[in-house]
From TrEMBL:
Belongs to the aldo/keto reductase family. Keywords: NADP, Oxidoreductase. Residues 16-292 form the NADP-dependent oxidoreductase domain. The active site is at 49 (proton donor). This is NADP-dependent oxidoreductase domain-containing protein. The record marks 78 as: Lowers pKa of active site Tyr. It comes from the Eukaryota. It comes from Caenorhabditis elegans. GO terms for molecular function: aldose reductase (NADPH) activity. The keyword Cell wall biogenesis/degradation does not apply. It holds the Pfam family Aldo_ket_red.
Length: 316
């Protein structure tokens, strides 16, 4: 049975979900249908992935079929950087619900703390490979999130890619405290300090790029490491008769974390959920903790590094 984590909103988030970034239109609907048939109930989406209309069509088909009810699914989406002012955040939430063909999402996240210039472009290009920024404070975005939650459009609200001091700022100003933080997290980027900080506040941590995104040409550079071929992980996989991906995903579950591996490959979609019939020992968990390299794959420090809210300016 898929384990879940309790959110401060009273709802529960399944520990393993399906990622949809880089799942192309034409692929993403099939991946979601395969995943739900395999037992996934948690799907991670975002406005900026530009595939939410197709996600919505797949969800409609699944719900119309009647085997799975809406309340059994946990759908996350994220408001994009060009929608940070209060009015634009409301607009983006409404677009997301319309694209997904849903009356509410289970979790809405502010995708990044740094805002981009508002307008039609998702990536408003500036000079020297930088974006054109907006100076809207994410506290304003959070106000819209609180109102959207009150209006029943999001059951839980949270943050993505925020540092501990940015989370603290939202926490201090918030009427509704963030339920969740989604950040890059895998055995080569274990985020121990940020995890401890969130644990103290009762914020559930969801790890993105949980497998270190081995197939992506988008952020990957020559010489970047591949956690799926790590020797420690391979040894533990052999001992359990499981694959390296399953060992990594079980490490999330046994560490009290959620993970959202992306795949459009049916066999991998099933493989990534088949992690609830075994457990890692404390020694195995600490061996995996020990391979941390503080290596991140999603690094926007070149593109967004001089934005005052760029999260990569702080240690954690
Ligand atoms: N909040 C944010 O800013 C943010 C940023 C990045 C990602 N995310 C979310 O997190 C999700 C996951 O992260 P990610 O897509 O960056 O990386 P990931 O899940 O770590 O890796 C995905 C890649 O691994 C391959 N793969 C999946 N399962 C595998 C397995 N069992 N064995 C070998 N290879 C496997 C996939 O290939 P195939 O698809 O070809 O099978 C794909 O190329 C995203 O899809 C997105 O929903 C959020």
């Amino acid at each position: 049975m898929v384990q879940s984590l309790k959110l401060n909103s009273g709802y529960s988030i399944p520990a393993i979900g399906l990622g949809t970034w880089q799942s192309k239109p034409g692929e993403v609907a099939a991946a979601i249908k395969t995943a739900v048939a395999a037992g996934y109930r948690h799907i991670d989406c975002a406005h900026v992935y530009q595939n939410q209309k197709e996600v919505g069509e797949a969800l409609k088909e699944i719900l119309d079929e009647g085997k799975v009810k809406r309340e059994e699914l946990f759908i996350t989406s994220k408001v994009w950087n060009t929608f940070h002012s209060e009015a634009k955040a409301h607009e983006n939430i409404d677009i997301i619900l319309s694209d997904l063909q849903l009356s509410y999402v289970d979790l809405m996240l502010i995708h990044w703390p740094q805002g981009y210039a508002e307008g039609a472009e998702l990536f408003p290009a500036g000079e020297n490979g930088k974006m054109r920024y907006s100076d809207v404070d994410y506290l304003e975005t959070w106000k819209a999130f609180e109102a959207a939650q009150k209006a029943g459009k999001c059951r839980s609200i949270g943050l993505s890619n925020f540092t501990h001091s940015q989370i603290q700022r939202v926490w201090d100003a918030a009427e509704v405290k963030p339920a969740c933080l989604q950040v890059e997290l895998h055995p080569y980027f274990t985020q121990v300090k940020l995890r401890e900080f969130c644990k103290e506040k009762g914020i559930v941590v969801v790890g993105y790029s949980p497998l270190g995104n081995p197939g992506s040409a988008f952020f990957r550079k020559d010489g970047d490491p591949n956690v799926l071929t790590n020797e420690v992980v391979a040894g533990i996989a052999k001992a359990h008769g499981k694959t390296p991906a399953q060992i990594i995903l079980r490490w999330f579950v046994d560490s009290g974390l959620s993970a959202i591996p992306k795949s459009v490959t049916p066999q991998r979609i099933s493989e990534n959920l088949a992690v609830f019939d075994f457990q890692l020992t404390a020694e195995e968990i600490s061996k995996i903790d020990g391979i941390n390299k503080n290596w991140r794959i999603v690094d926007l420090s070149q593109r967004d590094g001089d934005h005052p809210h760029c999260p990569f300016l702080e240690e954690f």
